[in-house]
Structures are given as C-alpha cells and as structure tokens.
Amino acid sequence: MTETCGRTLSDNATLARKVFSSNPAEHEKTALLTILSAQIKLLYGIHERLVFLPREPVERETFSTLQDLFKSEWSEDPSVILTTIQNAYEYRFIDVLRDIEIFEEKLAELSALLPFDPQTSILELPFIDRQNPLSWPFLAHEFGHSIDRRKSITKAIVDRAGEELGLTGIPVIASWAMEVFADFVAARVLGPASILPLFSLELGLSPIIEPSKLNSTHPPTPFRLSLLREFLSKSELSFNEYQSFVNLYQSDQELKFERLGEKAKATRETSEQLLKYVFNRIEPDLINATGELKIFTFTKDSETRANQLKERLRQNVPISAYRKSSDAQIREKLKTMKSAPKDDAKSIYSTLDLLNEESAAAGEILSAGWLYKLETYPDRIRSVFESDPPNFALYEDYLFGIDNLLLKSLQLSSVHRHLAVTLKLKATQ
Amino acid sequence: MILCESEIAEALVSEREEDRLVVTPLIDPRHQFGPASIDVRLGTDFAILETGKFSHISTQETRKQLRHQLEHYVKKVRLEPNEIFYLHPGDFALASTLEYLQLPPSLAARIEGRSSWGRLGLIVHATAGYIDPGFSGVITYELTNAGKVPIGLKPGLRIGQICFVRMSRAAAVPYGAKATKKYQWATGVQGSRIYQDPEILDE
C-alpha cells in the first residue's frame, strides 16, 4: 500500500513540489487534492479490510492517558478496542444485545451470565490510531458520552429546555446536545487540542472536491467550534495557538459551503438558526454540568506548560516531566555555590532539589504534541519534495518519531505519578 | 575527567545547547545523585529470551536469517508500575532504564550496578556498560541474577548508576551522527542488532 501511494505521489511530484513551494494556480491545488483524495480513499478501504486480521489490543498508554484525564470518573473501567472504521465510537454491550432480537427478551438472564458488567462502556478507536496519541482526544469525547449516559446529564437539560421552548421530543436536539456536551468534556480535559483530530479527520475524509453533508447526529463542526470557543473562553483559553490550522479548516469549510446546492445551503442555514435558538438556552447548563465533573481541568497554566514541553520535543526528548525551576535559576544557584568557600552538603542538596521534575499531565503532553506537529509539519512536507524522487521516508520518520516520543512520554508520566505518590508517602512516614 | 555531582547538574542546565546533558525524568534527585553519578531506575519494559525455540545463535547465518532468529529469540513484556518481574538465579533478561538520556558530543558515560543490588547478586550489564557521546535514548540493562534466590524487580527501582566522563575534545562524529548507529532514539528495550554488523554475511 505504501508503495502504491508512494508511486502515485512520486508520479505527481512536480505538481506537489509546485503546490508546496510556490504560488500554485487554483486548478493545480484542486488537482493535487484530487490525487490525495484518491489515496486517502484507498487507505481507508484497506483500513476497513483489517477486520480480517487478528485484532491487537490498544496500547497501555491509552488507558493511563484516559485514567489521568478522567480521574475518578474513569473508575467504571471501560473497555477500549480497535475498530476498522475510520471513526471513534462509544456504546454499551447491553445496547448491542438489545439490538439483537433473539436476545431482547432474555437480557436479564444473559447479563447475569456475562463475566463483565454489560452496562460498562466500550470505546472504539480506529486501528490506524493505535499508536497515534494525537488522535486520542477522540476517546475523551467518546468517554464524555459515557459520563453523560451514566448521569443522564443532557437528557435532563434537554427535557427542561424543551418544555420551556416548546420543542419537546425532537431527537435531533437531544442528539446534538449530547455531542456538544461530549465536546465540552473533552475540552475541559484537553483544552483547544480536543477538537483538532476532528478537523484533521474532516479535512482528510472529505477533501475540497466533496462538500460535506448535514448530519442528523452531529451538529456541523463549525457550529461546534463556535460553542467550544465560548466554553474555552470561560477558562481564559482560546484557539490562538492553533490559529493557522483553525483557519485552514474554516476556509475549507467555507469553500465546501459555497459548493453546496441552494437547497442544501438553505437547510444548513435553517438548522443553524434552530441550533442557535436551542443552544442559547442550554449552553450555560451544559457548561455548568461539565464544570461539576471531578476530572482533570486543562487551565491557562496547562497551556503554558504545553508550550514549554513543545520546546523539549524539538530536542527529540520525551516530555513526561517538567522542572519548576528554570535553567537560569539553577545555573545561578550553582554559580553561587562555586563562589562559596566550600561545597557543603546543605547547599548541594538544595541545588539538587531544584532539578526535581514533576510529572506532566496527559492533557498537557497531548497538547504539546499538537503544538509541535502543527508548527513543524509544513516544513517537513516541503523537505520531502526537495529531492528527486521525493524522499517519503523523511516524513514517515518524522511521524513515527512524534508518535514514539509521545507514547514514551505518556508511559513515563504514568510511572512517574505512581512513583511520586510512593516516594511522598515514604517522606511523610 | 569524571564529573562530580555539581558538574553533572551544570551539564543538565548548560546554556549551550550542544553541551547539554539530558536525563529525564528526574523524580527524586536528592536521592538519585551520588558524589559522581546519577542513579537510574528500572523501566517497565523487559525482553525475555525464549531459549527453547532454537538451538544456538549462529553467526554463520546470513544477515536476514540472523535477524529473523534474533527477533524471535526475545519476547517483550511490559509491566504495570506496581507489577513485579522475578529474575530467577542464572536467568538473563533485557530491560531498560526509566530515564531517557541524551549525551552531548563532549560527554561519554558508563552504566554500573548499585552496590546494594550487587550484594544480592544482581548484575545490570553483561559487558556493554559504555555509552557513546551523542547517544540518545533509554539505556538497555542486560540483567543477570548471579545469586541463589529469585529477585523481584519493579519499575522505578534504582538498580543502576551512570557516571559521566568529560572528554578532552568533543567527538567529531558523535554516536547519533554515525551511519552505523543501531540503538539511537530507543524508547524501549531493544534486542541485539548484531546482524547489522559488516562481519555478518549479506547473502
């Protein structure tokens, strides 16, 4: 597959080189997008056929990441499995049984026989993202659905608002509210990076030549983005750090909208009016409900830390931990120590204490990964086409390098947290 | 010249990026620093040798065959932070440091065992304790239990120590820049890549 994709792209290297390095004409951009679109379709087609291969488990880091993000909420211990479909899902095993007619009447008996609680959530992650932590924010969104279902959060909010607004029993509103709540939950634990995998997926799944359709289960992503902006602004967070990618996504959406037929445009506009009307009423309740959860909160400090960690990624070093003291402070302390008459134990120990590292939160590590990737990928793509034939191995190494360092960072931070608790306990005993 | 504790600290915060030493995560430096070394911990990854699967390691094999053989020789195991790995008397296993190291071109290093573990019979490297300047990655432990009773090991234990040696001149071709590097950027335990040596037959 890599060979086929590589050959197609190599055959069109002159075009790609022009698009990446100079001011391409509109038709050249469209031509390249068409070629890329064909490759993406091929890739997804093959991905779906992975169903015939033995199913590997997800990485352990997936669990430690979700555990760190969701703290005590994660205690229901959901399963995370891989799927061949290029999307993430959340469901309960009991719902699957319910859908199978012959099991429907014997649910209680069947449930008692199962070696696990059928009410427990199952989260699905695409095979392709098994070792790609930058896509794991999808799972945070999906687990938001699980929390919602367990606590009947959006149902209560939508029922209440429906009566007030005279809009009861409209399934699309309930469904859209569930999605927005799950977005808020993911943003609470991951900040703005929570929605970036969705932009990436949508840019890849439906390139510019195929206008996206209105979805009855999910509100249009640009609308979700506007709600997320409001949600994040309450914590003084914004998409500023990711502006170029957000701009890319938005301009793609605008072009797609332009290409919609008049009828589809009218439907989209009416739905957005309904959305605005409903969400004006329910958004504050959804935000409050998200705030009440006992989960990790991505704050302004987390954003600062993610930026510091991003700089360490540049040095090809895992970013599982950070120092509270700056290098300059430690250098100063070491200088003072040198100028003192002799190195006494007290001063060396207090200097060593400054070198102590704290474990970074999984949300900060993933955000740092996104910041790093968005800042570096355009140059890396350009460098592929600097040689003739193009050197795709460079980009492959770059992507594997990021995945590897992020996986290692998530693994180390989980061990670090565990050790820090043990060492702290020892120190207080 | 072997670096003392304050010189190691200086290298960790060096203003010049090309001279900077990286050892991360440093979870408890007060206990990890010795007078001229840093204690390093055990990571979560182990590789067990599946000796029952073939008769011997033959350097007469071709590169491809030897690679195949060696890759099937090791079975990787990953522990949870509170899980125990029992190393039985006479057993050999690969593991790695929890810490990720990045050595500047002007520093070489050596990994050694810690005395308290040595007294229990734990050996942390078979023969390769030397770390080249310019190396980046986790360090592989070549663990052997030379004692009489099994030793329970868990991630995070400080079983090794690294001392750093300042070279009289920075290496012209640090490990990371070598065309023949085998273990650069390792983030987990890695088995032998002896098959990459030029002495092994191509065909």
Quickly name the level 1 CATH class of chain B: Mainly Beta
Task: Give a quick account of the main beta sheet of chain A: strands, pairing sense, barrel closure.
Answer: 3 strands, mixed
Compute the CA-based radius of gyration of chain A. Answer: 24 Å
Spatial sequence of strands, sheet with the most strands of chain A: 1-3-2
Helical amount among residues of chain A, as a percent range?
Answer: 55-70%
How big a fraction of the residues of chain A is strand?
Answer: under 5%
By DSSP, the count of extended strands of chain B is 12
> H/E series of chain B, N to C?
HEHEEHEEEEHEEEEE
CATH superfamily membership of chain B, which one? Deoxyuridine triphosphatase (dUTPase)
- Kindly report the CATH topology of chain B: Deoxyuridine 5'-Triphosphate Nucleotidohydrolase, Chain A
Helix content of chain B: 10-25%
- So how many helices of chain B? 4
Biggest β-sheet description of chain B:
10 strands, antiparallel
Number of individual domains of chain B: 1
Mass-distribution shape of chain A: globular
**Overall pLDDT of chain A:** 87
Distance N terminus to C terminus of chain A? 58 Å
Count of alpha and pi helical runs of chain A: 19
